[in-house]
């Protein structure tokens, strides 16, 4: 049975259809990558799966429970089994990194304070931040913040880890380190991960399956090799990095020439 | 032609009035929903029976809303007390009724000026801070992070702030009353050489417990308005940092306006009940 099943999901913002009858299954133990360009609906789908927004129609089943219709208490229980790292990290700025990680442990478990401290240290050690627990988010670099967000997401040993654009805005070395971290988590903890990204290198490094979104619909879902072999024009365009509207250099040059001539005529 | 222009202008005015009325009703409705939801969550912020982290957050907020505002409220009340005493004295002296300044300051502060000045100070200091804090958390996805970590933002963020406001604002009101009345006493000391102990004796004989209670009831209502308007403005932030700035301004403007409207309503109620 799939851990997550998305069925005929339709989402609209102000009459504009962002997701148009989307279907997706996420299997346990797999890293599924949601790939797609900016504005393709990746983050919207993630927010829907997290129950942060209500769809216009369709269902999202997590462990067999339809989160679009379930009671708040049930949604809260499901969320306790999901770890999420947001694109902006979304660490609580008023808390230290250690306190950020400890928050759910303190409030959702009955662990003794010393055990909480130990678990926090372990989670931070997994992401290579064991020495930085006392620092506040503003004192960390972009890559460290993302890793801290992953540590916080791992605090309750979730069955499912969701990462929104984990490598966006990071240099290639730090981005590669995060990719390795995701693979390490998958191999070590058999974690199921859903990763939203538009970074091709990252997607093809970490994915077991890739689902590619374009204009609110999945245009290709499959393994890395199946995606590479896809003949869908949009997939090929995305993989080959072909622009939609190439800049017409002669047209720009012509415009500049006319502008210079008009300035000369005025002077 | 002129007739059709007039008709068009009338329809525009009606449309604008209708739209704005609906918006305000929607706002009041949202405040009500938020208030009821917070009442359900406020138990978690109470000591002993609630969540100790919410109680700790509430104590932290009490320090911020209450203790840190004492110098500002005291100074504001002293200045207002002097103003009230001097303005009253300039008129009452002509009728040989200077001693009524004591009643004016004592009753004026306990029933009216104390709660109102405190509310305006707290609205400017803390109402705007609530909107800025929650608005920034909204922009940086921290509110979404709270939700996906299975926390209820109203219970996590608003309940401690509301509890702290309910405790701090009435306490600040008493501070404001004391300093406002003290200013009246200093004025009387310098203008009529009336000793302060005697002045306070007259003050205590001129005010009744119901005056103090009326002021405290108002304070609780003002605390509710300030906490909920500030937080609602924060939760309604959409967009970037500029929206946070607008929400902080809106929090102060709206809460001050609503505090004055509520004050008028309470004063009218107490007046007809014979308490004012």
Structure described in brief:
The complex is a heterodimer of chains A (267) and B (276). By secondary structure, chain A is α/β, with parallel strands linked by helices.
Name the features:
heterodimer, A: 267 residues, alpha/beta, six-stranded mixed beta sheet, four-stranded antiparallel beta sheet, 10 helices, 42% helix, globular, B: 276 residues, mainly alpha, 9 helices
Question: What features would you describe in this structure?
Answer:
The complex is a heterodimer of chains A (267) and B (276). By secondary structure, chain A is an alpha/beta fold. Chain A is 42% helix and 23% strand. Chain A contains ten helices and ten strands. Chain A has helices spanning 42-49, 72-80, 97-108, 113-126, 142-154, 172-189, 200-206, 224-228, 233-239, 249-266; strands at 4-13, 16-26, 31-36, 57-62, 65-66, 82-85, 160-164, 192-197, 209-214, 217-222. In chain A, the strands form two sheets. Chain A has a six-stranded mixed sheet with strand order 6-7-8-3-9-10, sandwiched between helices. The longest helix of chain A is centred in the last third of the chain and has 18 residues, at 172-189. The mean pLDDT of chain A is 89. Chain B has one domain. Helix content of chain B is 85%, strand content 0%. Chain B has helices at 2-41, 52-65, 70-92, 100-139, 142-148, 153-192, 196-206, 209-235, 241-273. In chain B, helix 3 crosses helix 6 and helix 6 packs across helix 8. The longest helix of chain B is centred in the N-terminal third of the chain and has 40 residues, at 2-41. Chain B is globular. The relative contact order of chain B is 0.14. The chains are: A alpha/beta (267), B mainly alpha (276).
